[in-house]
Specification:
By secondary structure, the protein is an alpha+beta fold. The chain has two domains: about 230 residues, Glutamine Phosphoribosylpyrophosphate, subunit 1, domain 1; about 180 residues, Rossmann fold (3-Layer(aba) Sandwich). It is built from 16 helices and 23 strands.
Amino acid sequence: MEERERREDGFREECGVVGILGRGNVVDLLYYGLYALQHRGQQGAGICVHNGEKTWVIKGLGLVHDALSDEKRASVNGYMGIAHNRYATTGRSTKIRNVQPLLVDYKGGKLAIAHNGNLTNVGAIRKSMEESGSIFQTTTDSEIVLHLIARSKGKTLPDRVKEAVSQLEGALTCLIMNEQMLLGYRDPSGVRPLSLGVVDGMHVLASESCAFDLLGAEFIRDVNPGELVVLTKEGATSMQLVPPKRDAQCMFELVYFSRPDSVVYGEPVNEARREMGRALARRHAVPADVVIAIPDSSNSAAQGYAEEAGLPYELGLIRNHYVGRTFIGPDQAARVDAVRVKFNPVRSILDGKRVIAVDDSIVRGTTSRKLVDLLYRAGAKEVHFRVSSPPVTHPCHYGVNTPSREELIASSSDVEAIRQYIGATTLGYLSMDDLEHCVKDKSRFCYACWTGDYPIPVPELANSIPFDVD
């Protein structure tokens, strides 16, 4: 990939979507909604709005404030719109044409989409469409959804969407908009989150409830798996578009992706992570002086560990939140250097101490190794590395950019071998049993990245599908 983030050898975030139908101009509301979801995608952002007469799209590469400048936002207006933060999974991420929302003209007028997830059967569908004459402008699987909707014989947009999604497999949380209505859909396994809220009589759809908090919106409920929410000037209605299938809500949303101040799948993320930390302390207790987090996604788990262990929780690593992403080169040496640029140890906390460092995952192991070395260089006497999830052994095929299985260190190495590689004094992972007991209903979740049990069929060549994932 051309851009690297803090977790350069780990999972990449997915994407974030926001949709609003109200009154007046909702452009700035969409913009701030994307701000709240910036953690879900940093490679591009876009907004599509309709004002009753005209439909506009503005978009750009980079973070929200760079991609959607004051000047761009002032050039458009609309009472309804959809917005998208992008994190792609291929080197095509810097193509502006792939930044969403995508807007097309078809026989029914204007049609726009913003999508979070990964369709696992797009290869065969796209090949069939191309053979029948379809022309594609992007390399995203989201464009295929637009083609299927445009081809449908359905009389209404919901009818068209129903026909389209019946042909798709995989993770599909999306917002769709024409010139009359805004739709929010969540696939029948509910892989990616989508919630409904309201502010000043305006309905809001968003990937996470933290967007509602920034907008001053009231959380109403999660959109159900297989449900289509329809927003019009008359209000909000819904229909069960597709019967629910085996639940496959992504557990990594709770472990890492979602913001801790969100409620996702009905679970307060902060509390779920604290419980993971408590369980980790019960499972892997060790004499120590201090507990620290690998910031920021592990903060809550580290706090939970410290509470259960009766140890002080300290800010032993300070993360530089103002470091850009594009400066990090693609070669391994540059990725290693990025750890030192983004994290600085607090020597007064670490020097001479037995340190428990809590992280949410170890993927390739490169970052963990450099962090352990960083802590030793700051004077730590011992570094006990604790991971608030089980060993990651399988890639995700549902919208998370994951290294191939061969690159996942836990797929070929046991815990002791990983400990030796990263250089920790001891290493302990959360067990699958413990993880499942940290949520209200363990049967609702997808654990495939830890177990290899994929709840939605994955084609044999899924890793080679030549599309960006949104």
